[in-house]
User: Fold 4a-hydroxytetrahydrobiopterin dehydratase from Thermus composti.
Amino acid sequence: MDWEIQKDPERLLKTFRFRNFQEALAFAQKVGELAERHNHHPRLTVEWGKVTVEWWTHSAGGITEKDREMARLTDALLEVG
Assistant:
């Protein structure tokens, strides 16, 4: 998995790049729908041409297996289109 591990709090972070704002926003919407289905919600930062996704479990104070799974599922969103 090519996600970065950040500190304070410990979390998985990855920035996805797109051709424009519209594509970035559409991807953020897909991540939001994924989060709702799994009742596990990331921090999303949407900017022109990029979306930064951060997964961690607040109650655990850091990264759990659920966060790793959500990161894998987030990556898979690009494969589905």
Observations:
- The first strand starts at residue 4 and ends at 6.
